[in-house]
Predict the structure.
Amino acid sequence: MLIERTNKEIIIRLPSFVDTTGLQSLVDYLTYKEATSKSKATQSDVDALSQEVKKGWWAENRNRLVK
């Protein structure tokens, strides 16, 4: 493995035999970190949004799931 830092990016080189399933999990995590790096949201903001989304999902899907 080789890690290289340039002025604009960090480049990670891995051998081709590395398991891509585990690598995808790492890439997903890094994508999340990049997307949230400038967020000013608090954990309570995230929790409130999560509850709001769950309520909306349940309202839309309840009839389909509960019979």
